[in-house]
Specification:
mainly alpha; globular
Length: about 220
């Protein structure tokens, strides 16, 4: 059960972004973000919309008849999307860290295994899973057995959503009361960085030899 208005609001924003993507249903349409510049709501909407676009890019690239050249273009888009996803999550964490910077942390305060924004990242993906599984439940072009299997999966996803919302709510309660230290954990993505990926910074040299030397 979602029992906190804050979590309810964030869920609604994620669901709103998911619905907005599927209104146009195109990976090439950039939606107008309805929230104010610099707000947490704007970042959450943007986060889920990135996830929705990437979800469908992942579908497209799995087309067994896709032209290899097109698959490579899509793969590069997915790489950029992963970086954008990481960047927006870390921006959300920076926002929250600043928001709670004056909270007095108790001596016995604990650490969480992930930062608040990475927990919300999981929630954003879960919202998309629920949306698409519900679509499968409502299909009319499949056997009833398919819809029944998907209905059972949807029930599990909804339980996971409720559990995750409760856990995120508890995390924020612990942070705001000083029972949990607010820490930001950076992902330090390397594959998109031309100074850190040996295939990129050794481009034009003996890439194979260099790459092996880094393992």
């Amino acid at each position: 059960m979602i029992n906190d208005n804050r979590i309810e609001k964030w869920v609604r924003i994620f669901e709103e972004a998911t619905e907005e993507y599927h209104r146009m249903n195109s990976v090439d349409v950039e939606v107008k973000n309805p929230y104010g510049k610099g707000s947490l709501e704007l970042m959450l909407f943007r986060k889920n919309y990135i996830d929705a676009v990437q979800w469908h890019l992942e579908d497209i690239i799995r087309n067994p008849r896709i032209i290899p050249e097109e698959a490579l273009i899509i793969k590069r888009r997915i790489d950029r999307s992963n970086q954008e996803r990481t960047d927006i999550v870390e921006q959300i964490d920076d926002y929250l860290r600043d928001l709670y910077k004056d909270v007095k942390v108790l001596p016995e305060a604990t650490l969480n295994t992930e930062s608040p924004a990475w927990a919300m990242d999981r929630l954003s993906i879960l919202i998309l899973k629920v949306y698409h599984m519900r679509q499968e439940v409502n299909r009319s072009d499949v056997p009833v057995e398919h819809r029944e299997r998907c209905a059972a999966k949807l029930e599990v996803l909804l339980e996971q959503k409720a559990d995750l919302c409760e856990a995120i709510n508890q995390l924020f309660t612990d942070i705001t009361t000083g029972h949990c230290r607010m820490k930001v954990y950076k992902q330090m993505k390397m594959y998109n960085d031309p100074s850190l990926n040996p295939v990129l910074y050794c481009y034009g040299q003996s890439v194979t030899h260099t790459a092996i030397g880094h393992r």
